[in-house]
Each structure stands twice: as structure tokens, then as C-alpha cells.
Amino acid sequence: MNVLLIEDDLDLVDALSRMLASRGFQVVCCADGAEALVMVRRRSFDVVLLDLTLPGMDGLDWLQHLRDSSSRLPVLVMTARSAVEDRILGLNIGADDYLTKPFDVEELAARLKALVRRSLGVEDYRCGQLRLDPENGSVFRGAMPLDIPGRELALLKALMMRPGKAITKDDLHQAVFGSAAEAGSDAIEVLVHRLRKRIQGLGANLVTLRGVGYFLMDESQADRQGST
Amino acid sequence: MKIVFHPILLKLLAWRPWRVQGSMRRFALVWMLLLLLGTEVLQWAWMDGEGVAWSAQAGVWWVVKLVLWCLGLWLVLRQTFAPVMALSQSLADRDAGDLQLVSRRQPQELAPLTVAVNLLLQQQQASLDQQRKFLADASHQLRTPFAVLRTQLQGVMSGELETRATLPKMLGTVDRASDLVRQLLALAKVEQLVRGANWREVALDAVAQDVVMEFAPLFARKKLDFSLEAVPVRLLTDPWLLGELVRNLLSNAIQHTPRGGALGLVVRVMPSGPELLVWDNGGGMNEAVQARLFEPFQSSSGATGVGLGLSICRQIAVSMDAVVELFNRVQDDRIVGVDAVVRWPREMATVAGPNAEQAPSAAHPGRSSEPPPFVNGSIPSSPVASREPRP
């Protein structure tokens, strides 16, 4: 994967490019906005990693220039500005994702990969040993399709399609039963109970937030982040 | 030879009749009467005591009298208001940093002004002292992680510290520093927003739910048993401020709850007004530091936080006329955890929920017998006691 890293802090550039390179990315670095615009036209990149505070040109202006030239290149913005307005502005102008400094390099790599997959149309969702193929909507355990009843599958899909985020009970109810509310409010709990048993030992942990909703946690990530 | 003056003589020597002493009104009255008397005496002398004046002489006299009156009145008024001019001059001549109190030896008419100015100066001094202390604490807190990082790094580079063991600790130090910076910025933003006062109706229950969703990965990582029980409550405030309040209280609770422990959030309307309760199962806090926990950079022993969270909470609560308090929750004569309670006055809630006077029912039908935790300065029934272990 070819990454264009636009960042003016040379220490960060050095460390990031090494760490990304060891994770299979080919990184090209650039500290100047205008130069980066020329590079984007000349070479083909899979994704851009953009710092918002650049010398000479604001990162948001850079993004605007890129989108004005009708480039659909995925851009992940990283910045020390954490104001919500800045995020919204960045996403409105055409950033595909947003990461606030300081960040976890694992998370950055995961998000870059997800962005590239999404732009290539081969996005799939993973959690533990489970993999959801959005093309045909089936869930795999490794290479084998997981054989589970339709409603549990719908529940699992709804949970897997929001990686790293909780989902409210109402939203789950909507995703599984649709707007037809013939199912009682306990129905989701029963389904969750069954699903939890079914995916036991597959590296995915279904966590209950009582009174709020549910959260599907990749256990390998929990262990990694918990140990730091 | 030593000359000894009689006290009355001393008083007479200190007497400055041409200066306001005591009361400006009395000074002006006395000198105007003297002026009147003086002109009368002059008139009497002018007329040679004859009393009857012929017309031309009387005309000249009236001109002289008018001039004397104007001059005298101008002098009397100038002297009467001299203390006011002196006070304003002394205030105007001050340096910006000079917060010395104004002398209280002023005419009685100026006393309310002097008291008000002094009160303002005292408040200014107090806020300056507080700012100085905050800056000293903040610079200490900001420098410490860098000192730690530097030492750790030097230790690793010289081979005195083991790389594998030290690097994760360094990551922890960096996280602590970023947390501190985030909280310092949040504190600045709170101050700005509180001053801006661009407030509107915000649903407390919805804000609480959003914060819980945001924290979901943390609950999962620590395998915490979490529950939210909320009735609809709308408050007049800023949504970011309210979110920050819930975020800080919940983050504290998560920090103090051991892995696998229980914690929860309750939003309800009590007869006194709406209330937010964040309870944890973290073993309670040291009561000796309880009062100081809301001051900046104070944290309970063993806490890993930077100690700004509760200070931010109190500032937000005060801006909404709310009160935020911490209680140790006691069960079987043993402290089992902390209840953080925010109480809003009744007027702050614009629309209360349909079950306004009741605590929310338990989120799960199977647990409906579970009483919501609450401490009102008294020994409560613990939510933990009746909670089933998680399957």
C-alpha cells in the first residue's frame, strides 16, 4: 500500500514512516503542501495521511485543493486540534477519517488499511476469528461460513458493522426486526444470550451495557491495549 | 529639654480647618455659613455701620458680593471634593499589579466606595493568588512526566534500565501527559463557555447515553459490569459542558473500579430537583482528602489521574447552579465504593419526565427489584449487595 505522509515534524515523520513500513506500507514523506499536491498528480497513492498544521498552507486548504481537482484519493487527517468543529469541517471538506494526536500507531495502521479497503471496494469487517463479507452478507469463521439462524446473523452483522463502537438496544432491534415491532423488548436479550454462547471462544466478546446497548469487542485488541 | 504638649493642644495643632475631616457635608455646610457670615460682616463694614445705603453704593456692593460669593463657593466646593479627587488620583497612579488596599481614613461619604473598592481589590488578589498556585501546580505537573520520560530514556540508553520493562512504562508516562494536556485545555474551554453563556435545553439522559457509548471500549477492556438507569430530564446548559461533566465523573469511576468490578450511572428527578449519580465499586476514598478533591491537582491516594477532573466538574456544576458531591457508600460497616452526585435546582430542569417523582425503573425486567443506589449524606442501601454476578 502506497501512503503519502504529509507532515512537517521530522521526528514524527521518521518514527511514523519506519513503523508504517514495518507494517507493510510504502511511505513517501513530504513536509510541504504545494509539493505534496504535485506529488499526488504525478504518482499514484492508495491513501494520504495529512497533518492539518503545515507551513505555508493549512491542511484543510490542501484538502480543499485536492477535492477541487476531483481526486477521490482517501485522506486520513491527523491533527492536534481536537475541537469538534474542526473535525466536522475536515470531514465536510472531504477527509475520510480523522485521528487526534497523540494516537496509537496500531490504530492508525488499522484505519489506513480500512480506508484503502473501502476505497477499493473490498472492505470486510473482522472481529476475532469472525469475518463479515459485505458483498454477500455472510459471516465466516476463518474460511468456513458460520452456520447460524437468520436473526442471530442479522444481530451479529449489525454489531460487526460498527467496529469499536457500541450500538443501542433500539438500533439493534431496528436492525434485526425492522420497523415491525411485533417482537417484545426481551427478544434482543434472548438473541444476544444465544449469540454469546455461539461465538464463545472465537475471540469476540459481546459486552452488555445495561440500559444502553451492546458492544462487540475484539479480545486480541482488549488484551493488547489492556497490557499497555 | 523635652517639651510636653497638652493633649488638647496637640488636637488643636492637628486641626486643619481648611481640610475635610470626618464629613464632607458638614465641611461644606460650615464653610458656606462662614462665607455668608463673612459677607454680612463685610457689608456692615462697607456701610460704616449706618445700615442704610444709597442706591449707587448698593449697586457696587452687590457686584462685589457676587464676586466674593462665587470665589468663596468655588474654593469651598474644591476643598469639599478634594478627598474624592485625591482618591481617584491615587487609584489612577497605581501600577496594574498594585493591589494594596485603599486607606480607610476617608470622609464618611466615601466609606461605601472605599469598602467596595477594597472588596474588589481583595477578590482580585485572591484570584491572582489562586492563578499563581494553579500555574505553579500546572508547571510542576507538566514538567514531571517529561522529567520521568527523560530519566527513563537515559536509563534505557545507558543500559541501566531494561528496555523491555521500561518502554511500556514510558508509554504510560506519555498517556498521563496527554491526559493532563487534554484536561488543561478542557478547563480553559469550560471557562470560555461559562463566560459565553450560550445556553439551550439539553437532554441529560441523552448526553449520559452518548458518553456511555463513547466509553464502551473502556468498559469492555476492564470487563466492567455497567448499567445506566435514566428518566428523561432536560436542563438549560451547554451540551459540551454537560457532556464533559458526565465524562469526567464516569472516567473517575472507571479509573477507581477494579477489573471485573461494577459501576453505573443514574439520572432521576428527586423532589428537590434533577439528579445525576455515578456510582462505583472501587473501595471508596480517604475521607481526609475528600474536601480537597475538588481543588485542582488533588487526587486520592493511589489514583493515576492528574487531579483536574473533579475541579472541572465543580466549575461546570457551579455554572449551572448545581452542586457536585462525593460520598463513600457504606455497606455492612464497610466502605465499598463512591457515589458522585450532581444535584440541580428544580428550576434548572425545563421539562421533567413522566415519572418525575420516581427513581427510574431497572433497565432489565429480571432485575426490577433492584433499588437504585442513593446516598443523601446517610448510609445507603448498596446497589452492589443486591446485584447478581454477571453470567
Keywords:
heterodimer, A: 228 residues, alpha/beta, Rossmann fold, Arc Repressor Mutant, subunit A, 2 domains, five-stranded parallel beta sheet, four-stranded antiparallel beta sheet, 44% helix, elongated, B: 391 residues, alpha+beta, Helix Hairpins, Heat Shock Protein 90, 3 domains, five-stranded mixed beta sheet, three-stranded antiparallel beta sheet, 8 strands, 14% strand
Spans of chain B of 5+ residues with little confidence (pLDDT < 50)? 352-391
CATH homologous superfamily heading of the largest domain in chain B: Histidine kinase-like ATPase, C-terminal domain
Given the structure, what is the number of helices of chain A?
9
Largest interface, and how many residues on either side? A-B, 23 and 27 residues
Task: State the helicity of chain B in percent bands.
Answer: 40-55%
Largest sheet of chain A: 5 strands, parallel
Radius of gyration of chain A: 20 Å
Structural class of chain B: alpha+beta
Mean pLDDT of chain B: 81
Query: If strands are numbered along the chain, what order do they take across the biggest sheet of chain A?
Result: 2-1-3-4-5
Number of domains of chain A: 2
Structural class assignment of chain A? alpha/beta
CATH topology of the largest domain in chain B: Heat Shock Protein 90
Give the C-alpha Rg of chain B. Answer: 36 Å
CATH superfamily grouping of the largest domain in chain A: Response regulator
Strand element count of chain A: 12
CATH topology-level fold name of the largest domain in chain A: Rossmann fold
Q: Mind explaining what this structure looks like?
A:
The complex is a heterodimer of chains A (228) and B (391). With 228 residues, chain A is α/β, with parallel strands linked by helices. Chain A has two domains: 2-120, 3-Layer(aba) Sandwich (Rossmann fold); 125-227, Arc Repressor Mutant, subunit A. Chain A contains nine helices and twelve strands. Chain A has a five-stranded parallel β-sheet with strand order 2-1-3-4-5, with helices on both faces. Chain A has a four-stranded antiparallel β-sheet with strand order 6-7-8-9, with helices on one face. In chain A, strands 10-12-11 form a three-stranded antiparallel β-sheet. In chain A, helix 6 (150-160) packs across helix 7 (169-177). The longest helix of chain A has 16 residues, at 105-120. The radius of gyration of chain A is 20 Å and the shape is elongated. By secondary structure, chain B is α+β, with helices and mostly antiparallel strands. Chain B has three domains: 7-90; 99-198, Helix Hairpins; 200-386, Histidine kinase-like ATPase, C-terminal domain (Heat Shock Protein 90, 2-Layer Sandwich). Helices cover 51% and strands 14% of the residues of chain B. Chain B contains ten helices and eight strands. In chain B, the strands form two sheets. Chain B has a five-stranded mixed β-sheet with strand order 2-4-5-7-6. Chain B has a three-stranded antiparallel β-sheet with strand order 1-3-8. In chain B, a hairpin with a 2-residue loop joins strand 6 (323-331) and strand 7. In chain B, helix 2 packs antiparallel against helix 3 and helix 7 (204-221) packs parallel to helix 8. Chain B is elongated and about 110 Å long. The termini of chain B are far apart. Classes of the chains: A alpha/beta (228), B alpha+beta (391). The interface between A and B is medium-sized, with 23 and 27 residues.
